[in-house]
Amino acid sequence: MNMHVNTIEAFLEALVKELDVPDHRYEQAETSYSSLGEWLHRPASTVRQYDPQVYCQGSFRLGTAIRPHTDAEEYDVDSVVELRLLTKRDKTQQQLKTMLGTEIKAYHDAMAMVKPVREGNRCWILDYADGAQFHMDVVPAVPNHEQQYRLLNARMLNTSWASTAISITDRREPTYKILTDDWPRSNPKGYANWFASRQAIVFERRKRALLEAMQRQGVTASVERLPAFKVKTPLQSAIMILKRHRDNMFARDLDMRPISVIITTLAAHAYNNQDTISGALFAILNDMDKFIVYDGNKYVIANPTDSLENFADKWNREPQKKDAFDSWLRQARVDFYAAAQAATFKDMADALNPRMGYALSMRAMDRLTGGSRLLRAATGASVAAGGLTNAPSFANAERRPTKPQGYA
Fold this sequence. Notes:
It is a single chain. The chain is an alpha+beta fold. Helix content is about 45%, strand content about 15%. The protein is built from 15 helices and 13 strands. The strands form four sheets. Strands 2, 3, 4, 5, 6, 7 and 8 form a seven-stranded mixed beta sheet that branches. A two-stranded antiparallel ribbon has the order 1-13. Helix 9 (about 260-270) crosses helix 10 (about 275-285). The chain is globular.
């Protein structure tokens, strides 16, 4: 298809700026991790002897978090407290969660937090003050690298990411109250490292470019000390756009919306170091479903850091969830195809309004037209195309799943 390169790239960049989490929110989250970590290491802490480490997981760690729709909604900040000197032979899941819960509640009281601590199936939830606009899920965990390595190695599977594997608590598990090695597995550090490896070349190039721009402005900084959230890659930007499209498409049926880890994993597989958001987005839309495996019996989207975990498990139990993913991908292809063909920002906004949201699209247009909606109405917000290129075709949107090939 013909795509107006400069036009669509500018519009997508504006969308990402509107979706991006402000720097102070990332700084706020980091302060919260540090504060909780200091609390757990204080002299009177009941878990200090187990060397607790607090760290971020999920979209905040990956740099793919998006702003809530409104100021009334909150950021969901996911964190882990890994007790590095504790093992599954020392405590049951329930005992670990209760022990950490005592410290979380004490921290809540010491910080004079108003909203009560809540308990989730896997975590404790700290609700911060209204002005903070976020809550933090705190997942208790213990190291699991040795057992994970043995488990994967015995099946001749990739063990590259096993060194950061953890075991977590989940009160829905039948072994929750039993002293056993059979705990739920996770590896947020490994997944973040794998994700970073998929965009490493572009990330480093953009990081150095940002540093050079800061130095030209007289800002002193070094590559080592520049926070990762300051750098936004095309892969991260494309995922943010697709997540908001997904959220709006399934706003009235949240249970059916494709989960973020599936979108993120397939997008990272499909990304091939494109330098632009539009290049990344259309490569992902064109190819992401090629990385869904069907082995003749079930669908598989393997966790890249743990091949025994299947992110598509629910698709096999609830086929309507797979249908929902297919429907979303088809719609995303149609919407962004139409936007890419448009020659004006107004036409792009019109193509994307139903799923990206009217307010978001209008704010993106304001960024590109100086906020003059009267001017947009009069001129159609036309811009120079700056040349045409062939973007990926979505003609073969319906593909048969491939046989298992593994994930490097």
